[in-house]
Write a structure and sequence with these properties.
Elements (H helix, E strand, L loop, with lengths): L7 E5 L20 E5 L53 E3 L2 E4 L35 E21 L5 E7 L6 E6 L14 E6 L6 E8 L7 E11 L7 E7 L3 E7 L3 E6 L3 E6 L4 E4 L8 E6 L5 E5 L4 E5 L5 E5 L6 E4 L6 E5 L2 E5 L6 E6 L6 E6 L5 E5 L6 E5 L6 E6 L10 E7 L5 E7 L4 E6 L5 E8 L10 E2 L2 E6 L5 E8 L2 E8 L4
Parallel strand pairs: 31-32
Antiparallel strand pairs: 1-2, 3-10, 4-5, 5-8, 5-9, 5-10, 6-7, 6-9, 11-35, 12-13, 13-14, 14-15, 16-17, 17-18, 18-19, 20-21, 21-22, 22-23, 24-25, 25-26, 26-27, 28-29, 29-30, 30-31, 33-34, 34-35
């Protein structure tokens, strides 16, 4: 998907009588369709995960490594396009590109290759303007990649590609990987489109590729530039167990003592142990529909029934302790400091006691933003996801005033991009677990340290039910971490095709 502003500047450069053909003849450049977005940002986004200028207070963590994260780089004319799903070891295509020229649209060099027939005029490629000076095409990628190779798909004479550099935008580290025709590089001269494969032996991860192209009356045209490699921080975390759920999951909580509660549509409350054994269901009214569940330090369960609009407090044995509230729904979390239940309902925070289910405080949040998910760190700090669709941000809120104390953007952009965050959780060491249903690398969970730096990613996303295997997530909805930090639990799916998955975290 390419995102364009309301106003467009279009120019068509036509070189008549020229065509690209296969065989012994070199490919000949065809005109490039030019589209310019007049309202684009001057800063191309990257998939953050970025450290905040005023980071969250550090808490001890069992993870010492914190790989560098993507940063932003100023650009004259950035453009956004869809970044196809890519798995570790496969090709990652650029999501943005920009060039020296103000009229030659670099957007056509973003995304996967488009050209299949070189004889067609008006190819969706980028080409420099006809002038006396070489031009530079810079391509950015949503996620830093541990690269083994850069692949350039192009039309035209390979001699038109003068230089290729790779960089890490955060550290500023870079490396020249190609300069003219090198003996170690196989440069095709009779293919259209052609592919130039350049080996990369950098000891840093790459999120920028810079291609310098020669000035020519028949310039080389760049169709796409891919990075072959592995996604930064990706690990194959072992799946300890996976069990089917009887309905669409709407809440997930892990209690002390090894119990896991799953609220499923329409009115089910299912209990499992950490071995994946279903223990029992708790009795609820037949017309109940739970929007979320949470547990306290004593193992008591708080269930939000959006049908009756009430808070139901249950003991670990399932005994109803109290009922309260009116017109309640939303996401819930229990404060480890005062033991109160915090309910995120639309644009407000409702605070209830867990012994009497009485409302004790109400906080209005910023009505200019949407919020999703709620969790407390062990030291009592409150976190949520702001603007979770397309521009998600991890936010720390003042639990009494609702004021935003700090924020870590998960995507830096004012343009629509395909990244959606669904839920979040924390562990006892202060690490964050952000659950995505869509992002650049198509990885479900990003684990961040207390300062917001990416530690690891795991759990592949899929949009094909035939590819919905164990450890793969189709529509992830809920995430939680057991109090001891040994298990990360994810609920995904819908209807009668839903699952609860437990990842085992090996202690370091």
């Amino acid at each position: 998907m390419r995102n364009f502003s309301l106003f467009y500047l279009m120019a068509i450069l036509i070189l008549s009588g020229l065509a690209c053909k296969l065989g012994d003849t070199l490919p000949i450049s065809t005109p490039t369709l030019v589209e310019t977005d007049a309202c684009c940002l001057n800063i191309p986004p990257k998939e953050a995960i970025l450290a905040s200028p005023t980071p969250f207070p550090a808490t001890p963590t069992v993870h010492s490594e914190a790989p560098p994260t993507a940063a932003i780089l100023a650009s004259p004319t950035p453009h956004t396009t869809e970044s196809p799903a890519a798995l570790p070891g496969e090709v990652f295509w650029a999501n943005r590109s920009f060039s020296d020229s103000e009229t030659a649209d670099p957007d056509f060099a973003s995304g996967a290759p488009d050209v299949t027939d070189c004889t067609q005029p008006m190819q969706p490629t980028w080409a420099p303007m006809v002038n006396e000076q070489p031009e530079t095409l810079t391509l950015s990628y949503l996620a830093p990649v541990h690269a083994g190779e850069v692949e350039i798909i192009y039309i035209g004479q390979p001699a038109g590609i003068l230089r290729v550099e790779v960089q890490n935008s955060l550290s500023g580290l870079g490396q020249l990987i190609y300069e003219g025709k090198q003996s170690s590089v196989d440069v095709p001269i009779n293919q259209c489109p052609a592919s130039l494969s350049l080996p990369v032996k950098a000891d840093f991860d790459i999120d920028l590729v810079i291609v310098t192209v020669a000035a020519s009356e028949i310039p080389v045209q760049i169709d796409a530039v891919g990075i072959k490699g592995e996604l930064l921080g990706y690990v194959e975390l072992p799946v300890y167990w996976r069990v089917p759920l009887p309905g669409t999951p709407h809440g997930l909580a892990a209690a002390p003592g090894g119990l896991v509660y799953a609220a499923v549509e329409p009115n089910g409350l299912w209990i499992y142990d950490v071995e994946g054994n279903q223990l029992k269901t708790l009795p609820l009214l037949s017309d109940a529909s739970l929007s979320d569940v949470a547990t306290d330090a004593f193992g008591n369960l708080m269930a939000i029934d959006e049908i009756e609009g009430r808070l139901i407090v249950l003991s670990p044995e399932g005994q109803q302790l109290s009922v309260g509230g009116q017109n309640l729904y939303g996401r819930a979390a229990v404060s480890p400091q005062d033991g109160n239940l915090y309910l995120l309902k639309a644009g407000e925070l409702l605070i209830y006691t867990t012994d009497t289910a009485e409302l004790v405080h109400q906080v209005q949040l910023d009505d200019l933003h949407s919020f999703m998910g709620l969790t407390f760190s062990l030291d009592g700090r409150l976190f949520t996801l702001r603007d979770f669709d397309w521009d998600p941000t991890l936010c720390q809120l003042d639990s009494l005033t609702g004021e935003e104390l700090d924020a870590i953007p998960l995507l830096l952009s004012n343009q629509s991009a395909e990244i959606v965050a669904r839920d979040l959780a924390t562990d006892a060491s202060g690490n964050f677990y952000i659950l995505f249903s869509m992002n650049a690398g198509q990885v479900a969970v990003h684990m961040l340290n207390p300062q917001g730096n990416l530690i690891r990613r795991f759990g592949r996303l899929t949009f094909e039910m035939d590819d919905w295997s164990e450890g793969t997530f189709f529509t992830p909805r809920e995430i939680t971490v057991t109090p001891d930090g040994r298990f990360i639990l994810i609920a995904d799916g819908f209807g009668d095709t839903a699952y609860l998955t437990a990842f085992l975290v090996e202690r370091e």
